[in-house]
Amino acid sequence: MPISTNEFALSYPKLFHVSLARDVDQILNHGLLSTTALLDLCGYEGENRSQIESCQRTHVVSISHPFHGKFLINDQAPMSEAPLRKCLIDFTPREWYESLNRRVFFWPTQARLEKYLAARLARGRQRLVLSFDTRSLLDVLDYDLLELSPINSGNATRKAARRGSETFLKLRAFPFQERRRAVGLGKAVAEVTCPYALGPDTLGQLAFSSATIRQ
After folding, report:
1. pLDDT by residue (tens digit) across 19-59?
2. FRET partner for 43 with CA separation of 20 to 30 A, picked from 1, 50, 150, 202?
3. Other C-beta atoms within 10 Å of 201: how many?
4. What value does the mean pLDDT of the chain take?
5. What are the start-end ranges of the H helices in the chain?
6. How many C-beta atoms surround the C-beta of residue 120 within 10 A?
7. In the sheet that 14-19 helps form, which strands lie side by side, from edge to edge?
8. pTM of the full structure
């Protein structure tokens, strides 16, 4: 059975976004941008773009634009090609990378946020954590824009979960009740995503519950 917007907001009252932005002003000026949206903003094309958008990023990538300034794009170190190929169902690795890079991601629980921030590969890296009121976000966004994932889609190492075209499902299609019974509320939804970007006009309608710098 799908989850209603009201039940979703009650189950996950806060959504957390982690950014490598220098400060909140950079996000307020440009919005929450996916990797694809950032590359569009900075006018990246051809091979330079493909290396960032269509392949594994083993380290943080810096891009820039003469007017918009500099931006950092997070690495994908926990998702190497060999294990990724084994767990993909109906995607190529290139298609999977591009699918992820077209999304803006949120963690639905404090526990998942803390686990991500504590990951060994990212320790010591300064990150900006934004906390959003879920109900406010649902009031602003179209119901069908949000998609949910049952797995950490950016992690593909040994014994990686199977993934493909059915990994990200809209709220009306996501089997929330079944997963809640099977694994509990905290694990029922692993990620919340929206396509491409949340522009500055959309962000202007939302109030950050908090914006903190984390190491």
Report:
1. 998 788 889 899 999 999 999 999 999 999 999 999 999 99
2. 202
3. 9
4. 90
5. 5-11, 24-30, 35-42, 46-53, 81-87, 93-101, 110-117, 134-140, 176-183, 185-188, 200-204
6. 7
7. 14-19, 127-133, 208-214
8. 0.93
- CA dist 126 and 79 (Å) reads 21
116 touches 18 (CB < 8 A): yes
136 closest CA partner among 4, 14, 35: 14
Listed by start position, the domains of the chain span 5-214
Q: 8-43: b or e for each residue (b if 16 or more CB lie within 10 Å)? A: bbebbebbbbbbbbeeeebbeebbbbbbbbbbebbe
65 is written with which tokens?
Answer: 């634009």
144, pLDDT greater than 90:
no
Q: How far apart (Å, rounded) are the C-alpha atoms in residues 101 and 44?
A: 14
Percent of the chain scoring above 90 in pLDDT:
68
Residue 207 contacts residue 136 (beta carbons within 8 Å): yes
Cβ atoms 90, 134 nearer than 8 A = no
CA dist 165 and 113 (Å) reads: 25
> Of 71-85, 92-106, 132-146, which one has max mean pLDDT?
92-106
pLDDT of residue 89: 94
Inform me whether the pLDDT recorded for 203 exceeds 90. no
Kind of pairing, strands 61-65 and 103-106? unpaired
Using DSSP's 3-state secondary structure scheme, residue 81 falls into: helix
Burial class (CB in 10 A: 0-12, 13-18, 19+), 68: middle
